[in-house]
User: Which sequence fits this backbone?
């Protein structure tokens, strides 16, 4: 399955470098813990990091009901650009010019609307908690009515989506390959450390946390 | 040294949670490999990941001269919001509501202008290459005039800046602390892997790459 490119999801410079594969986009969205939400407030751009979860073809964004993005969204939604980038490594070229990074990036454009339906909101929050580990939502206390009222969830349809990735060695100019400089890739990985239980916790660390033991 | 808060760098919701310490902000900007640049194009928000380097009180953003952000900036600059977030861990609470992440985030607002001065541009590119490892700019080929013409650098003054961080255990409701759910922190760290030399490279991997050997 592919997304249909639009003006906003087409590159001016390198149209051939963008991908529109749903599978690739969804794998990147699902792997990332944080997304970067761009929106306009009082005529100027703003970017906020927030937690997200994909459920089918919808991206849910978490927010407090007092935050600017959600206040803007109260009346029928807010135009957003959501960006997720996973950094995979540094790319050392023999030339300054071709230094680069290896990465996987998804950009989503669209109108994010506050989730009004209480069941949809509950389900989105449940899935958000499960991004901390499969089953975590059943292994922690459900929200009270007051907590629910303080939590906002925006829904963004995943229709206008592009993917850009870079992997592999540097793109060297043929004239540079004999220069005696080191060149190559240095991978960067996010690793999960050893869990730090909160004071008073007596149950063992659940395996869904993927924490080192 | 502290930044002076402005409307844009003051939180509606939790004003006390934002910091304005230059030292803290600069350490976060310097540690991150990628920043997220928000800007407005044709009336809609856009966010792009890009490389950055801080030189004194200026944040330089890297771009191709054919990219939308830089095209927008040609005539006197472009309003941007630059966000950098370092993710330090997942925070498991006994309640859905208090699940959180530990992070360090910097937000910069201002007008980014294309660097016209050739010496300033050279210096910014040199410092950008040195973010790959101290001294890397002297250990790789300098740009040609053609490469320089293809590379755009935007300068953003670091004056309107805020910092938000979260560290430590979950903020539990007192009523929840005796619930028999696991709670605590699971640290996330970015680690540098083993270098993958490019084809034909005969010199040893430089230590400035911080690659594992």
Assistant:
């Amino acid at each position: 399955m592919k997304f249909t490119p639009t003006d906003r999801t087409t590159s001016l410079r390198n149209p051939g470098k963008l991908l529109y594969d749903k599978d690739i986009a969804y794998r990147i969205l699902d792997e990332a813990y944080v997304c970067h939400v761009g929106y306009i407030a009082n005529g100027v751009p703003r970017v906020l990091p927030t937690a997200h979860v994909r459920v089918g073809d919808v991206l849910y964004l978490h927010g407090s009901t007092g935050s600017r993005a959600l206040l803007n969204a109260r009346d029928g939604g807010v135009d957003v650009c959501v960006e997720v980038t996973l950094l995979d490594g540094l790319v050392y070229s023999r030339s300054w010019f071709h230094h680069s990074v290896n990465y996987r990036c998804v950009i989503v454009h669209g109108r994010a609307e506050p989730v009004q339906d209480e069941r949809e909101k509950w389900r989105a929050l449940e899935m958000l908690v499960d991004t901390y580990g499969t089953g975590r939502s059943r292994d922690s206390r459900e929200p009270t009515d007051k907590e629910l009222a303080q939590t906002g969830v925006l829904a963004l349809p995943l229709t206008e989506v592009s993917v850009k990735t870079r992997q592999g060695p540097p793109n060297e100019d043929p004239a540079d390959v004999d220069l005696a400089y080191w060149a190559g890739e240095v991978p960067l990985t996010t690793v999960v450390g050893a869990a730090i239980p909160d004071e008073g916790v007596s149950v063992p660390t659940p395996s869904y946390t993927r924490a080192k033991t």
Notes: The two ends of chain B are 40 Å apart (CA to CA). The helical segments of chain B are 22-31, 68-73, 118-130, 145-150. Chain B touches chain A through 96 residues (CB under 8 Å).
